[in-house]
Write a structure and sequence with these properties.
The complex is a heterodimer of chains A (465) and B (277). Chain A has 465 residues and is of the alpha/beta class. Chain A has helices at residues 2-5, 16-19, 32-39, 49-52, 60-68, 72-80, 86-92, 99-102, 105-108, 114-128, 151-162, 179-182, 191-203, 220-225, 256-265, 291-302, 323-331, 399-403, 435-438, 443-463; strands spanning 143-147, 166-170, 207-209, 230-233, 238-240, 253-255, 283-287, 307-312, 335-338, 340-347, 353-366, 372-376, 382-385, 388-391, 395-397, 430-432. Chain A is globular, with a radius of gyration of 23 Å.
Chain lengths: 465, 277
């Protein structure tokens, strides 16, 4: 069978040593020929396991079939039925543990490159603009306030505006997109793409208001007083975690949130062309092993670092980052300090960071997360010299909004308690989803939560609580 | 867009007042809270504590010293021009206890932030003695407003060109020696707040300071505004901007405020060159 013989089409990429010094996107995207060839590998399973692996259940064989036939406009139309942010998801979803992880072809060989194909269809549409936006149902007269404008909020806004509701998005920053804009770097997700996806929503009738900090500028209760019938909270996690070790307030120690926000949202890599500065470390240590750590490390390289070390207390197998990101970072020359834990930061008399004292670790018994727990190797302390340290060890729940909404039930970590099937919170008329419910997770999981909440909000607006 | 409806120059053009249309913020703002302002598309997000709010007019007022590129760009905005972004009100409002004997100490543009607090305290029935200072007569701001907001006003200049010659701390010491002071509020340059706090600690008088650390979002997300207060790390943006002066690690704050000195200088130089064309 031909499908067996065609190899998985490799994604064309910028060469590692070139891209490690620029902010342009690393993968260049399939050509039409590559996309058709790759789509031809799909077995078109009767009971597609890939769809079950997708948090928003995109009809994957359906859109791939259209690509294989060269009907790219039909392909994007098919994706849009379930996913309003395909250009984003094609780039940042962890496909290897979702759709592609379930692909039958992957059992014996290589899975169909579903993410690359999704990206191809979305990029093709953005270039050609031939498809019509999905049509909008008759106006219901109901008003929904969506707080935050990250992936879960954008999904809620898109779903509900199509169902005929009036949707307002409130963003605390001066630009919409949430983590897609402040967190994920340009070389992984060009900001023009996020801008285009948001413009698409605005074209569908979603009203966008930036510079509104819900919890400060306006409270959730005031939104109801202003006539909103339902409120969706998709504000993200948004509270940086620090190591809580000595010297953490030295100049040169930044949270990944701060470092990436400077680089991405404020475009500080263009300083002094833009006005926001960013520390340009020569020797950089990034603490953590997730996608945010990879993004930080790769940003530091692009800002001219001589050496970037990733300090992670477990081993490579336990690193939560997407495989493709670890691979990319390694190709670009990232130094891995695995099984290594920071003990304290060292500084000079000007209060500036000069290094980190670290200790080597070894893996012991599995802990609550099922991963083997790292334990210190006595006497193995050493100093990792660095002038910039980026702390990327995760986020907690930002209390700004929740403290201003006292009757909103939270769990013991400060996250909003919401029904996993509906996103309903313990406060009437209020839904929540994404990282403010689950803790820091992925774009697509946040979108999945948004989809469920949108369905539930629609039901409420139609039938009541 | 947030339009400037009134603009004044003070201290020989080095300090600027902007009254800005921002009805939603004006309706919510309380003394002690701050804003983040951004002039244009490529601008920096600059935190400034509000000097005045007018909920009826729907305006907020900031008073700032021109110190770098961003404030230089702010300075060039005229009445009718607009800030692209104004975000707020941010931070915790001032906690005012009625009926106290308070000494309010202000230095430089800190007087602009001190003024609504002093006024609020006087309105709450406090006896407000204010001590304001600047390097010289030309740099002194808001003397008349502070006189109205205070029961008693003292003015100092470093060079003696106006009022009493010397630092605000000298007058403060006399007040503390005389006794009966329940609380001190100190707002101004970090070294001034540090020395006021060291002095009041000796006398055991609670002291509130208002800090302006480097930050980006102002909502607790970046953690750039970390300050050590009583040995614990706090975020200036959400836990502050006001803190117990006896607990603040001012030396660390001074070092952290210098994080971008080199880049700021470079950026400002480039901007000044552009300005001449």
């Amino acid at each position: 069978m031909a499908a067996e013989k065609t190899p998985r089409q490799a994604m064309p990429e910028q060469p590692p040593l070139v891209r490690a010094r620029n902010f342009e996107e690393v993968p260049l995207g399939y050509t039409a020929e590559q996309a058709v060839a790759e789509a031809g590998r799909c077995l078109q399973c009767k009971n597609p396991a890939c769809v079950q692996g997708c948090p928003v259940n995109v009809d994957i064989p359906g859109f791939i079939k259209h690509i294989a036939a060269g009907d790219f406009d039909k392909a994007i139309g098919k994706i849009w039925e379930r996913n309003s942010l395909p250009a984003v998801c094609g780039r940042v979803c962890p496909q290897e543990i979702q759709c592609e992880g379930n692909c039958l072809l992957g059992r014996k060989g290589e899975a169909v490159a579903i993410g690359n194909l999704e990206r191809f269809a979305a990029d093709w549409e953005r270039k050609h603009h031939v498809c019509e936006l999905p049509s909008r149902d008759a106006a219901t007269g109901k008003r929904v306030a969506v707080v935050g404008s990250g992936p879960s909020s954008l999904t809620v806004a898109s779903d509900l505006v199509l169902k005929g509701h009036e949707v307002s998005l409130f963003e605390a920053f001066h630009k919409p997109g949430g983590v897609l804009v402040y967190g994920i770097p340009e070389f992984r997700l060009p900001k023009d793409i996020v801008g285009a996806e948001v413009s698409c929503l605005q074209a569908q009738g979603v009203k966008l208001e930036c510079d509104v900090v819900v919890g400060r500028t306006v409270t959730v209760d005031e939104l109801f007083e202003q006539g909103f019938d339902a409120v969706y909270l998709g504000v993200g996690a948004g509270l940086p975690k620090f190591m809580r070790i000595p010297g953490e307030n030295l100049v040169g120690v930044l949270s990944a949130n701060e470092y990436l926000t400077r680089a991405n949202l404020m475009k500080a890599y263009l300083f002094p062309e833009v006005d926001t500065p960013i520390p340009r470390g020569k020797r950089v240590a990034v603490l953590g092993g997730g996608n945010v750590a990879m993004d930080s490390a790769r940003t530091a390289m692009r800002l001219g670092a001589d050496k970037v070390s990733l300090v992670y207390r477990r081993s490579r197998e336990e690193m939560p980052a997407r495989k493709a990101e670890i691979h990319h970072a390694e190709e670009e020359g990232l130094d891995f300090q695995l099984l290594c834990n920071p003990v304290r930061y060292l500084g000079d008399d000007k209060g500036r960071l000069t290094g980190i004292e670290c200790i080597r670790m070894e893996l012991g018994e599995p802990d609550a997360s099922g991963r083997r727990r790292p334990v210190e190797v006595p006497g193995s302390e050493f100093v990792l010299e660095c002038d910039l340290a980026i702390v990327a060890i995760g986020s907690g729940a930002n209390p700004l909004l929740t403290r201003s909404t006292p009757d909103l039930p939270l769990n013991k970590w400060g996250y909003v308690t919401a029904n996993t099937d509906t996103g309903k919170t313990g406060k009437k008329g209020v839904w929540a989803g994404g990282d403010i419910v689950t803790g820091a997770a992925t774009v697509i999981l946040a979108m999945g939560a948004g989809r469920k909440a949108a369905d539930s909000i629609h039901e409420y607006l139609t039938w009541g609580w | 867009m947030f339009t400037i409806v009134n603009r004044e120059e003070m201290a020989g053009g080095t300090v600027i007042l902007n009254e800005i249309e921002a009805p939603r913020i004006a309706a919510k703002a309380r003394p002690g809270q701050f804003l983040i302002l951004k002039a244009g598309e490529n601008g920096e997000r600059i935190p400034l504590t509000m000097a005045e709010t007018d909920p009826e007019k729907g305006t907020v007022t900031v008073i700032y010293m021109v110190v770098g590129k961003s404030t230089e760009l702010f300075r060039r905005l005229k009445v009718g021009d607009a800030y692209q972004d104004v975000i707020g009100p941010l931070g915790q409002p001032t906690h005012i206890e009625p009926g106290k004997n308070v000494v309010c100490v202000g230095g430089g543009t800190g007087v602009a932030v001190l003024h609504p607090i002093a006024r609020g305290m006087k309105q709450a029935g406090c006896d407000v003695t204010s001590i304001i200072g600047s390097r010289n007569k030309d740099l002194l701001i808001l003397e008349d407003k502070m006189r109205l907001a205070s029961t008693d006003l003292h003015v100092c200049t470093d060079d003696g060109s106006y009022g009493r010659k010397g630092f605000v701390t000298e007058v403060l010491k006399e007040k503390l020696e005389a006794g009966g002071v329940d609380q001190v509020v100190a707002i101004g340059p970090v070294p001034m707040m540090k020395f006021v706090s060291l002095m009041t600690k000796e006398y055991g008088v609670p002291t509130m300071v208002s800090l302006n650390p480097i930050m980006i979002d102002g909502t607790g997300m970046c953690g750039g505004c970390r300050v050590t207060v009583g040995g614990e790390t706090k975020f200036g943006c959400v836990d502050g901007p006001e803190f117990d002066g006896h607990q603040v690690d001012f030396d660390e704050l001074i070092l952290r405020l210098r994080a971008y000195t080199e880049q700021e200088r470079c950026s400002h130089e480039l901007c000044k060159c552009e300005g001449r064309h």
